[in-house]
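Researcher: Here's a chain I'd like modeled. Treat it as a single chain, no partners, no ligands.
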Amino acid sequence: MQSLIHVVAGYVALALQAVAIVIVAFGSARALVNIVRAAVAAPPGVADQRAEWLEYARWLVAALTFQLGADIVATSYAPTWDELGRLTVVAIVRTFLSYFLDREVEHAAKLRAFERTDVRPDASPRND
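Model: Modeled as a single isolated chain. Structure tokens:
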């Protein structure tokens, strides 16, 4: 029974790693298409460029999440110190990326909102 669980865990980990690879490939292809499209079209604003890179970062974080899941499954049966170290590093990297990505998304949303407002130089918030 234990060997069956070990074999199943191996296949589940392999499937999760394959999903992570597909996510990275799809996100990278999408980012490349959008970069080429932006280079050919009119120059995008700073907020639009940042939004595109943040979108690509989201794909990478999603792939890291699946990779973390694969590592958890792989280490669930008789983990070695090497596997536990790898799991720890992936978990730490994913946590930091998610935290800073969330902060950047908020900042990018504020930038986009600021760029979309119609601010005229002669406009004044006071009514003198």
